[in-house]
Amino acid sequence: QVQLVESGGGLVQTGGSLRLSCAAPTNIFSISTMGWYRQAPGKQRELVASMSTSGRTLYADSVKGRFTISRDNAKNTVDLQMNSLKFEDTAVYYCTAQRWFSGKPMTWGQGTQVTVSS
User: Fold this and answer.
1) What is the pLDDT of residues 19-50, one digit of tens each?
2) Do the bridges between strand 112-117 and strand 107-108 make them parallel or antiparallel, or are there none, so unpaired?
3) CA–CA gap between residue 86 and residue 59 (Å, rounded)
4) Are 79 and 20 in contact (CB under 8 A)?
5) Gap between the terminal Cα atoms of the chain
6) SS3 of residue 28 by DSSP
7) Which of 13, 59, 67, 106 to pair with 82, CA 20 to 30 A apart?
8) What confidence tens digit (pLDDT) does each residue in 74-100 have?
9) Half-sphere exposure (Cβ direction) of 96: Cα atoms closer than 13 Å
10) E strands of the chain, at which residues?
């Protein structure tokens, strides 16, 4: 079973920053678009950001200019740098892997909680 292991969640004040990291098995990471989704209480899960193997990125409008996704191909990790955090960014954040940039995730991490206090 493929495992995506997330780290870096926590509690931060409005305007603060957090960095999430996700480690993936080499055979999955090297061929997958990696991404981050989130799910807030009472809301549907939504895409936050994704990055293809070639570096193409996609961001939700709500996080553009504040969040940055990056990949480290040597470490098989994908990070999400979150700056200028808002209360509405509070959610469980999931690392994902998918075969095609325009496709849907095939694999999900267990999630890490991000709480932004107002």
Assistant:
1) 999 999 999 999 999 999 999 999 999 999 99
2) unpaired
3) 16
4) yes
5) 39
6) helix
7) 106
8) 999 999 999 999 999 999 999 999 999
9) 24
10) 5-7, 10-13, 18-23, 33-39, 46-51, 57-59, 67-72, 77-82, 91-98, 107-108, 112-117
Per-residue confidence (pLDDT) for residue 118, from 0 to 100: 85
Q: Which amino acid is at 4?
A: L
Residue with tokens 């990055």: 51
CB 78 within 8 A of CB 70: yes
3-state DSSP call for residue 61? helix
Q: How far apart are CA 40 and CA 38, in angstroms?
A: 7
